[in-house]
Design brief:
Elements: E1 13-18, H1 22-37, E2 41-43, E3 51-56, H2 61-77, E4 82-87, H3 88-92, H4 94-99, E5 105-107, H5 115-125, E6 130-131, E7 154-161, H6 172-176, E8 180-181, H7 184-196, E9 201-206, H8 219-227, H9 233-242, E10 249-252, H10 262-269, E11 277-279, H11 287-292, H12 299-312, E12 317-324, H13 331-344, E13 348-353, H14 371-394, E14 400-411, E15 414-420, E16 426-429, E17 439-449, E18 452-457
Parallel strand pairs: 1-2, 1-3, 3-4, 4-5, 5-6, 7-9, 9-10, 11-12, 12-13, 16-18
Antiparallel strand pairs: 7-8, 14-15, 14-17, 15-16, 17-18
Helix pairs in contact: 13-14
This protein binds iron/sulfur cluster.
Iron/sulfur cluster (SF4) binds near residues 170 and 172.
Length: about 450
């Protein structure tokens, strides 16, 4: 398809759309900055642009469909525009995307840093319309840096890519490749840049964050390192980041339970900047299901790790993901998950219905579960989560907390300033816009809504 972009660079408009996870959001922001540095103007995706970049996701079949829909939507918005498909779905479905008339350029993972150059090459010769490498063979971390973020108070920072775990339902190891870690100097340089821009909270993210710094480890070495997580590179980088002046909070993305050891927890519990918020993906509370999922822990180990966290931190925020309707999940197995969730009482459980992902082992498993059963099971867990969440939030009523304020929102027709505590509890106060990006002591006195606590400012602190 012939595209006719004749404007000089500074008049060229580029629009982005991101699907999927926080890592994708981070990478989109980094690509936006590359385009800005090259004198392009960033516009909203709904506007007429000269170039549309869709950062795709392939975590489920629904994500695939959405990725295709958005790429086609871009072409409809401006049939003369160059439509660029980037990211994980590209990695999984390169040939189909190249054959698709609506898509002009496909850019795989670990090629995003070259996106401006790839686009300009394409515009000049219309020949080379793909840059997708065999991600399984690539061992380099692609350094994509950001200077600022759309979110004004909390900076999500990607420090790791890829995954070696091969959970049986997950396509990510095939689309993101093997574990690769960002260099310490690059991480610290970005932390300094973000702090200079005024960010107070850094959230470390990755595809499999617990693997940070273990790139060259063999499977055995990896297991050993993660089982004795005293000196893991992750623990070291958390400590170094929290020593940077201006960083007031440091939070972690999803962790694997095995990384929680006495040493890990003790070190972190002494770090006042560290937010006691642990996202440990459980996926199932039944050992037989966990085995079929190829998860590397059982419920006993998971429970021990949660207890360890609760010993060293006061009411740590334990959050998790659970998949319902995994192939072969019987009523009894699902019952075990319910019992386990009741025992642990997470602060928040994100419930996902199993979705078949072509190319994974689980897709070929027998006894796939009917959608109606998945729906029922999901509703049951969502109800349970509401109760657990309420119980957790209620335990803070009457307490002093510190809130990092983010934005003004309307709850039940009333305006509030809202932010989060270290434990990621959302709190609303009647206050001024000037609270944004301030950490302020408050006293919690009730609920502003089902999931948000109400507080007043504690001027005595
Ligand atoms: S740990 Fe499992 S679910 Fe997470 S990215 Fe790796 S393979 Fe996928």
């Amino acid at each position: 398809m012939e595209n006719q972009i004749k404007q000089p660079l500074e008049n060229r408009k580029v629009a982005f759309l991101t699907l999927g996870c926080k890592v994708n959001s981070y990478e989109t922001e980094a690509m936006e900055q590359l385009f800005q540095q090259a004198s392009y103007t960033i516009v909203d995706f709904a506007e007429q642009a000269d170039i549309y970049v869709v950062n795709t996701c392939t975590v489920t079949n629904i994500a695939d469909r959405k990725s295709r829909q958005m790429l086609h939507k871009a072409k409809k918005l401006n049939p003369d525009a160059v439509v660029v498909a980037v990211g994980c779905y590209v990695q999984a479905a390169k040939d189909a995307l190249e054959a698709d008339e609506a898509i002009d350029l496909v850019v795989g993972n670990n090629q995003k840093k070259q996106i401006v150059q790839l686009l300009e090459n394409y515009l000049s010769d219309h020949e080379e319309n793909e840059a997708v490498i065999d991600i399984a063979q690539d061992s380099e971390y692609e350094e994509l840096a950001i200077g600022s973020l759309a979110e004004k108070t909390r900076a999500y920072m990607k420090i790791q890519d890829g995954c070696n775990q091969f959970c049986s339902y997950c396509i990510i190891p095939y689309t993101r490749g093997r574990i690769r870690s960002r260099k310490k100097e690059d991480i610290l340089a970005e932390v300094h840049r973000l702090v200079n821009k005024g960010y107070k909270e850094i959230v470390l993210t990755g595809i499999h964050l617990s693997s940070y710094g273990l790139d060259s480890a063999s499977v055995e070495e990896y297991d050993q390192a993660i089982d004795q997580a005293q000196h893991t590179p992750l623990l070291q980088i958390i400590t170094e980041i929290s020593e940077v002046d201006g960083v007031e909070r440091i939070r972690l993305g999803s962790l694997e339970p095995r990384i929680i050891t006495d040493e890990f927890v003790k070190t972190l519990s002494k770090n006042s900047k560290f937010c006691p918020h642990f996202h440990l993906s459980l996926q199932s509370g039944c050992d037989a299901t966990l085995k079929r999922m190829n998860r590397k822990y059982d419920t006993k180990l998971f429970m021990e790790k949660c207890e360890q966290l609760r010993e060293h931190f006061d009411r740590p925020a334990l959050t998790t993901d659970v998949i319902v309707g995994f192939p072969g999940e019987t009523e009894e197995e699902f019952g075990e998950t319910i019992q386990f969730l009741k025992k642990i009482t997470f602060m928040k459980t994100h419930v996902f219905k199993y979705s078949k992902r072509q190319g994974t082992r689980a897709a070929a498993m027998e006894n796939q579960i009917a959608e109606s059963i998945k729906h029922e099971r999901s509703e049951t867990l969502i109800e349970l989560d509401k109760k657990n969440n309420h119980m957790y939030l209620e335990s803070f009523i009457g307490e002093n907390e510190k809130v990092l304020f983010e934005e003004r929102v309307t709850i039940d027709g009333k305006e509030y300033m809202v932010g989060h505590t270290q434990r990621y509890v959302k709190v609303a106060v009647e206050g001024e816009e000037s609270l944004v990006n301030q950490i302020v002591p408050v006293v919690i006195d009730g609920f502003a809504s089902e999931e948000v606590l109400h507080a007043f400012m504690n001027y005595s602190k």
